[in-house]
């Protein structure tokens, strides 16, 4: 079959690559990934403001690139995403350096040094648009190179982005003011201390923004004595080993005001709940249950960490920006089970402050009057029958009165506003199928109403039973059938 070799026009493709969907924070994080892949242990990110333009530089002391390596790195699509990568390697598509840089500005200059030898390349999108060709400069403009500085170590790389039209409005009518420029830098700092917190905590890597060190922000508050850590679980999903562990943050009553504010993160407590997905210790996605559950206030203490190897990228559909991801079908059921436990514990703590202290690992709320039910299908809250006051009271009652008190408490529980649910309407003349446990409850309650003379005839008894929240789903025919079978019908 005949084929024709085509070459896409440079100008429109470059503009499309600029619109993949990065924001400034995700773009800078993607550029930092390249330094980490080069085994850098010191990474300096600098933002310089200018009246008409600014400059962003990312310099590292990594392995550097010779001329061939640098040319490959500057090619559009320099990697096959299907190729097997080395352990801990963060890059996948060979696109991040270019697409992340182009989302910030129109000129990308790279100066790299390997074994003492410098190499350089430069993409200028104004030039590409003008000639509509993939023309890559082999030299960096001298005025730009002078601002980039030298590489002090034997090997390393400096990435420079200027003509910052997307970042600060270069070439347009509305340029970012200096205060807004550095506010944006501060937001990027918060993003990096979050995305790379595991790498900064577990390795010798140091990162700086404008010479100020980036301090890792741990979303799981593992340093706090009242944080609960679930058991680490190893799952095998499509031949890849996945690590999953949930964390339950402390109740607000255990936190100082600064701790509470910091733990909420830049999105707030509610929007930081959910799954946290890492690849090679680099955060990819967070702050959502990804369709497994809706967000709710009571689950805001639950955060579930999932660690993937880079070989799982295809299964989890990691995108170029490393900020979009999809759960594989094989993972959903198992993650739902683990997350359900985390949400249950979060709700216990959120509602009842049953937070364990460092010396008290039990999470049973023995002094709470109410507890959350284990099932989400039935009553949401149940009375704590082990409360010491209730236990003492029952010990001092005879069997008959203890039985009556327990029956009353059961109806208090079932009549709680939080436990009342809408029941489907059924034909009044149709006798429903009712579980034996509910039949027994009807009989106990009806017998008590008759014994206490609250009801003196059949009509009164039926009206009382039909108005109880506990029997909201039962119709008159069913109530009559149950009481008749138990010989509880009284004469008019």
Categorize the overall geometry: elongated
How many E-type strands? 15
Outline the low-pLDDT stretches. Answer: 80-93, 358-366
Name the CATH superfamily assignment of the largest domain: Histidine kinase-like ATPase, C-terminal domain
Specify Rg, calculated over alpha carbons: 32 Å
What do the pLDDT scores average to?
84
- CATH topology-level fold name of the largest domain: Heat Shock Protein 90
Strand line-up in the sheet with most strands: 4-3-5-2-1-6-7
Which class best fits the helix and strand makeup?
A: alpha+beta
| Integer count of domains | 4
Oligomeric state of the chains?
Answer: single chain
Write the layout of secondary structure elements.
Blueprint: H1 10-17, H2 24-37, E1 42-48, E2 55-60, H3 67-74, H4 96-102, E3 107-114, E4 117-124, H5 125-131, H6 142-148, E5 156-162, H7 165-168, H8 178-195, H9 197-202, E6 206-209, E7 212-213, E8 228-229, E9 233-237, E10 240-248, H10 257-263, E11 274-279, E12 282-288, E13 302-308, H11 313-316, H12 329-352, E14 370-372, E15 381-383, H13 388-395, H14 399-414, H15 436-451, H16 458-466, H17 476-485
Parallel strand pairs: 1-6, 11-13
Antiparallel strand pairs: 1-2, 2-5, 3-4, 3-5, 6-7, 8-10, 9-10, 10-13, 11-12, 14-15
Helix pairs in contact: 1-5, 2-4, 2-8
Pfam families: HATPase_c_3
Protein name: ATP-binding protein
Organism: Sporosarcina globispora (Bacillus globisporus)
Please provide a written account of the structure:
- The structure is a single chain.
- The protein is an alpha+beta fold and 492 residues long.
- The chain folds into four domains: 10-80 and 90-213, Histidine kinase-like ATPase, C-terminal domain (Heat Shock Protein 90, 2-Layer Sandwich), CATH 3.30.565.10; 228-352, Ribosomal Protein S5, domain 2 (2-Layer Sandwich), CATH 3.30.230; 355-410, no CATH class; 422-491.
- The protein has 17 helices and 15 strands.
- It has a seven-stranded mixed sheet with strand order 4-3-5-2-1-6-7, sandwiched between helices. Strands 8, 9, 10, 11, 12 and 13 form a six-stranded mixed sheet that branches.
- Strand 14 (370-372) and strand 15 (381-383) form a beta hairpin.
- Helix 2 runs antiparallel to helix 4 (96-102).
- It is elongated.
- The chain starts with 9 loop residues before the first helix and ends in a 7-residue tail after the last helix.
- GO terms for molecular function: ATP binding; metal ion binding.
- Keywords: ATP-binding, Coiled coil, Metal-binding, Nucleotide-binding.
